């Protein structure tokens, strides 16, 4: 008997009738020297948070950074932007999902970029795990993995933002490289 | 556990964006009303069908039995802050 699964629109269906799972990009062996795209969603403190994560990755792994700002934090990126991000980066880090719609959009962007072949680390605040999970399931990726940090991020001081970025770094790396290898041995 | 208790985590999630959640049981149906507080972030709500799915999961009922009212559906709603 097939297992019942959750349809994010609230309808219970059988797994045999479910759509195929969205593909997940192959993980990298290492971040060493890779191109890292920061997809900044314009929520308060998202830019300094992601830039600090990027700075730490550059320091630790010698990655090359690029930035792109979401036009609207509340909605997933259009197909042309996804294609450009996939072409220009080896991995993408997006966030910060610090509200309902932006956490859902971050998860949606992550799922689509993964399907385009790019490993993604989305960063979501813990208050909005239900929305990220629901949107990922809606996009065909139930159980989609992302990094979390405590809510809220928007009100943090610059020092606290840097502290939070450092705290989430290992989880971000684990989402991007094969076998969850954080690459600590490379540091 | 009542439906309101089952939705407590979701109510807290909505409160983080400045919204209140009212839960009402109407026979075999559930009515969920999301209303804005004074500092509600207008663009921060998930699409209604996604919210219905989240609620269905937490309540353990089919989404078709959940009536969702969003701020835009409320009489006199004129938008919130960003």
Question: Can you describe what's shown?
Answer:
By secondary structure, chain A is of the alpha/beta class. Chain A has one domain (27-180): Rossmann fold. Helix content of chain A is 38%, strand content 18%. Chain A has five helices and seven strands; from the N terminus they run βββαβαβαβαβα. Chain A has helices at residues 46-61, 79-88, 100-115, 129-138, 158-176; strands at 4-6, 12-14, 35-40, 64-69, 91-97, 120-125, 147-149. In chain A, strands 4-3-5-6-7 form a five-stranded parallel sheet, sandwiched between helices. A two-stranded antiparallel sheet of chain A has the order 1-2. In chain A, helix 3 (100-115) packs parallel to helix 4. The N and C termini of chain A lie far apart (49 Å). Chain B is α+β, with helices and mostly antiparallel strands and 82 residues long. Chain B has a single domain (3-73), classed as GMP Synthetase, Chain A, domain 3 (2-Layer Sandwich). A three-stranded mixed sheet of chain B has the order 1-2-3, covered by helices on one side. The termini of chain B are far apart. Chains A and B meet through helix 3 and helix 4 of A and helix 2 and helix 3 of B.
